[in-house]
Amino acid sequence: MGDVVADDAVADAEPVEEIQHSGAIAARLAELRAGKVEIHLKAIGSTPTLRKPRFTIDGSKSFGELTRFIRGALKVESLHVYCCDAFEPSPDERIADLRHCFGVGPKLNISYSSEPAFS
Q1: Cross-referenced Pfam families, in alphabetical order (predicted)?
Q2: Using one digit for the tens of pLDDT, what is the confidence trace for 68-88?
Q3: Where are the domains of the chain?
Q4: What is the pLDDT of residue 20?
């Protein structure tokens, strides 16, 4: 019977996403993500380079949006995009969050490759 009560409690619970982004937390996240982040791009291996490897992007944009922008600029379907030559962030990570954790001053170093570059 204890399992039934637990199942009922789970069914009535709010989704975690809504709880995490309500009220003061949402306001603070918006404040931290406000403004522009300077992106420094670097091609790895034989991947073509962009004509403009440095630009700014809204900090509230997702990493997936940045990845789509780079793929579109290079006119490629598949691309591996890395933060700090170390890892591929989740597409839903926010650019400002990555800069706060892994950036150097106001900039975030991003590298990209047509093939996996790091394991």
Answers
A1: APG12
A2: 999 999 999 999 999 999 999
A3: 1-33, 34-119
A4: 53
Pick the more confident residue, 93 or 3: 93
Measured CA distances, 95 to 9, 14, 37, 47, 84 (Å): 35, 27, 7, 23, 13
Strands (E), the chain: 36-43, 54-58, 80-83, 107-113
Quote the mean pLDDT of the chain: 84
* Spatial CB neighbours of 49, under 8 Å, sequence gap ≥ 6: 43
Residue with tokens 């892994």: 102
Do 69 and 95 contact (CB within 8 A), yes or no? no
> In whole angstroms, what is the distance from residue 81 CA to residue 85 CA?
9
| CA–CA distance, 81 with 106 (Å, rounded to integer) | 19
Q: Alpha-carbon torsion 30, 36, 37, 39, what sign?
A: positive
